[in-house]
Amino acid sequence: MYNPKSHVATEFISDDEIQDTLAYADANKENAALIDQILEKAQLHKGLNHREASVLLACTLPDKNAEILGLAKGIKEAFYGSRIVLFAPLYLSNYCVNGCVYCPFHGQNKHIPRKKLTQDEIRREVIALQDMGHKRLALETGEDPRNCPIEYVLESINTIYSIKHKNGAIRRVNVNIAATTVENYRKLHEAGIGTYILFQETYHKASYLKLHPWGPKHDYDYHTEAMDRAQEGGIDDVGIGVLFGLDKYRYEFAGLLMHAEHLEAAFGVGPHTISVPRIRPADDIDPDTFDNGISEETFEKIVACIRIAVPYTGMIMSTRESMATRRNVLDLGISQISGASVTSVGGYAGTDRDSLESNQFDTSDKRTLDEVVRWLMELGYIPSFCTACYRAGRTGDRFMSLCKSGQIQNCCHPNALMTLKEYLEDYASPETVALGNRVIHEKLTDIPNERIREVVGKHIDEIAVGARDFRI
Ligand code: SAM
Ligand code: SF4
What we know:
By secondary structure, this protein is an alpha/beta fold. The chain folds into 3 domains: 9-77, no CATH class; 82-366, TIM Barrel (Alpha-Beta Barrel); 405-465. It is 48% helix and 9% strand. The protein contains 20 helices and 9 strands. The protein has helices spanning 9-12, 15-27, 32-42, 50-58, 62-80, 119-132, 150-162, 182-190, 205-211, 220-224, 226-232, 249-267, 296-309, 323-333, 369-378, 388-391, 396-404, 408-426, 430-444, 450-464; strands at 83-93, 136-141, 172-176, 196-197, 238-241, 273-275, 314-317, 336-338, 382-384. α3 packs parallel to α5, α4 (50-58) packs antiparallel against α12 (249-267) and α5 (62-80) packs across α13 (296-309). The longest helix has 19 residues, at 62-80. The chain is globular and about 60 Å long. The termini are far apart. The protein binds S-adenosylmethionine and iron/sulfur cluster. S-adenosylmethionine is lined by residues 102-103, 140, 142-143, 176-178, 198-199, 201, 243, 277, 279-280, 282, 285, 320, 360-361. Residues 275-383 form the Biotin and thiamin synthesis-associated domain. Keywords: 4Fe-4S, Iron, Iron-sulfur, Metal-binding, S-adenosyl-L-methionine. Pfam families: BATS, Radical_SAM. It comes from Loigolactobacillus bifermentans DSM 20003.
């Protein structure tokens, strides 16, 4: 039985409800009158439920599809402006006791060297990341209670926050580790993590069981209920996602939105972010083995429909995607991208000469952070290194009410400009500096509140002569 408030996985992600939703969407994919009604509701910028959004995703009418993309762009512009937040993943350990068939870290893979960073190696990795200009990380580990226990993750977070090198600082550490207990989530919360991220991989239970044939991750219910335990442990910023390519995308889309509705219904706050990873080639993995790959056009439509359905939820795209794909979907709803990512353990500082052979997957976008930052500005975006909300305690529903109040332009926009100025002063190439200073000068005038505009202008001058870490 479908019950979004229930804490039982198969009730808030009810297979019957998803099948029924897909049948409803299929029956109405050319129903222009219904699609118009849904689009009208979406224009209020208050989101859609999984059934309505699934109709938009299934829609085959070209003119309505053009409207869907246009609406997504409008919502993106209204809620996020032209800011794109940047981050990098940091792989701590690739030991893993799970059997995920799409991931080369799976426990039976004998080709890849296994590695866990020491605290000294973490220091070197973090300094390499700081020297590129990164301020926000996503920690990644395989699941292995013996080689990579929670105490190691906590110690590593502590190390990362403590590293000060030149003007560098990691100001927000998000964590993408395996589903765990309420007690461990509480410890992560106390260690000061930003978002806890966990991908569902697939919401389809039968496929999930086949794709995760052994190891603790085989337990679908435990995995699917992870965010409930994270909330119970005090983490109110959680990030969800599926690995597109494993199962049918329309099923996954409905599942993702039902998960978001469940978090809203049960805890009063939806997910902080939704990630949209697609499966990539990796050591012993050929993505063509999975026959649910999606075209570029479908990928764009998924991003647009998520943007319309959950306007307040950030959307993350990684370097799994190429520069061309990233360009095409940025304005449809993406708010965060990774830059200059390395998916091996120890790959940033090159502390391990084997490290590049232990990539989790092949990245598609291999540009430097400076190139990504300049490219974003050339496309009209403002690259942002902002971490202000989390540091000011604006998490969970407090962050959501900031979004809903429309104050983002007086808050996130100024913070984006100030953190971009820091980046230009400390890390950028002369070409990026020249363009960046022009962008900052132009975009300052977009701050609606006159007093805030003046304060930010003053701070930007102060950053030019050495001051750091201002925030609104
Ligand atoms: N081990 C933890 C887990 O599985 O939840 C978290 C870290 S894992 C390194 C991060 C994510 O990488 C996984 O959730 C999975 O979706 C993704 N991934 C694994 N293999 C991949 C592949 N071949 N291509 C793209 N993404 C992949
Ligand atoms: Fe291990 Fe995560 Fe890879 Fe699965 S996806 S094998 S749990 S690292």
